[in-house]
Amino acid sequence: MRQLKPNILEVGAIDWERRLFDELIPLPDGTTYNAYLIKGSEKTALIDTVDFTKTEDLVSHLIDAGAGRIDYIVSNHAEQDHSGSIPDMLLLHPEAKVVTNPKCKQMLMDHLHIEEDRFLTVEDGQTLPLGDKTLQFFYTPWVHWPETMCTYLQEDGILFSCDFFGSHLASSHLFVQEEAKVVQDAKRYYAEIMMPFRSAISGHLKKLAPLNIEMIAPSHGPVYNRPALILDAYRQWVNDPPANKVTLAYVSMHDSTRRMVDHFTEALMERGIEVERFNLTHADLGELAMSLVDAATVAIGSPTVLVGPHPLAAYAATLVNALRPKARYLTVIGSYGWAGKMPDQLQQILSGLKAEFLDPVVVKGLARDETYVALDDLADRIAAKHKEAGLVA
Ligand code: FEO
Fold first, then answer.
1. Measured between alpha carbons, how far is 282 from 274 in angstroms, rounded to an integer?
2. Residue whose C-alpha is closest to residue 50's, from 17, 14, 21
3. I need a labelling partner for 293 at 20 to 30 A (CA). Which of 57, 190, 251, 338 fits?
4. How far, in Å, from the CA of 77 to the mean position of ligand 1?
5. What is the pLDDT of residues 294-351, one digit of tens each?
6. Is the pLDDT of residue 162 over 90?
7. pLDDT exceeding 90 applies to what percent of the chain?
8. Is the CB of 79 under 6 A from ligand 1?
9. CA-CA distance, 259 to 178, in Å (whole number)?
10. Chain centroid to CA 286: how far?
11. Cβ neighbour number for residue 79 with a 10 Å cutoff
């Protein structure tokens, strides 16, 4: 139990040990499931809950906080890391209503089998008085599910943003201590979770701009008592044009593709282009996602397995396609033993992106002189594209 302001407490859980989210996303720094207790002069509200594995922590913190009667359990987001304890909370607090929007209500009924009569639904912009404090709800769909919303505590200027602005960072500090570290973790979180919804987020940043926000209290990671830190970072990640940078993700079986990757890296560097390189046999996919936040070009390097890309290359391409980065150009380099459609299949996997596909460089067997010339030409084409697009400082 930690205090943001008088009568406003963080009562959630720190998950120091968790190293994977959704059985997909690496959590090198663990995570937290923040829940906030707001004691108004007449009513008490709990903002979000915790992952069901941490319900005991929430219950214990609520007892420590002397929570007593809870009138409202606000659910900003139906995903189970924040809603998982709602059923137990409703058993412990039979008087409590779950306050949320109609879409989230339906999802909570579907995922957690919460009875319909336990809900109080709110409209976008609606307020809910707690006596001397007032909650206001702002719909912010698609950060990162369709039902997500934020709750604003008017009198104290606190925005409870759930996943929005969050970071997977287990810390004993309630508030941000090392700004650079938190921004890096928040960038990782943005890249993995939020990036596909850039245009929605851009709209939400404008929608929330008129609010007098003194603190942003997300449901993962530390609370921002200097909101500009994360608001400015989000504006940059969402709105800025991509950088003069290539994200190069590759795998090599018998060294042919790796030699091409080495040459291609040097060729790009010689042309003043930043390269971030990921060997997919051991790359941290979170680092790869972060690289995609501002890469102008994404290149996949792959050998041919049977007739298609190496499964790790196909996996990376699937990830890139799903994360919808702002990259403007895509390409493929690699090799094959006797035949195959490796570049075509990777291009197909990446087809969800609105990016120009630059002709790939693919060699039969080990790279020869003409292969390296072709890679130089591809680097020239990328440099020219970046320059034409005004991405070169
Ligand atoms: Fe932290 Fe979308 O749940």
1. 21
2. 14
3. 251
4. 7
5. 999 999 999 999 999 999 999 999 999 999 999 999 999 999 999 889 999 999 999 9
6. yes
7. 97
8. yes
9. 40
10. 9
11. 21
In the chain, how many H helices and how many E strands?
Answer: 12, 24
Cα-based angle 156, 61, 68 (whole degrees, multiple of 5): 75
Residue whose Cα lies nearest atom 2 of ligand 1: it is 79
pLDDT tens per residue, range 108-143: 999 999 999 999 999 999 999 999 999 999 999 999
* Token pair of 126 as six digits: 């609606």
Residue 192 CA to ligand 1 center (angstroms) comes to 11
- Picking from 246, 273, 255, the residue whose alpha carbon sits closest to that of residue 334 is 255
Which helix H or strand E contains 250, and what residues bound it? strand 243-250
- Residue ranges of domains in the chain, CATH in brackets: 2-239 (3.60.15.10), 247-385 (3.40.50.360)
The separation between the first and the last C-alpha atoms of the chain, rounded to the nearest angstrom, is 48
Closest atom of ligand 1 to CA, residue 163:
1
The mean pLDDT of the chain is 97
DSSP β-ladder status, 329-336 and 295-302:
parallel
pTM, two decimal places = 0.96
> Which residues sit opposite 26 in a β-bridge?
20
Those residues with Cβ within 8 angstroms of residue 106's Cβ, 6 or more apart along the chain or in another chain: 147
| HSE-up of residue 91 (Cα within 13 Å, Cβ side) | 7
Q: Is 48 in the pocket of ligand 1 (CB under 6 A)?
A: no
pLDDT of residue 311: 98
Name the 3-class secondary structure at 170. coil
Token pair in block for residue 56: 């005991």
Q: How does residue 5 score in pLDDT terms, banded at 50, 70 and 90?
A: very high
Phi, psi (deg, nearest 5) at residue 352? -75, -10
Give yes or no for a contact between 280 and 258, defined as CB atoms under 8 angstroms apart.
no
Which tokens belong to 251?
A: 């795998």
Instruction: Give residue for tokens 């504006």.
Output: 235
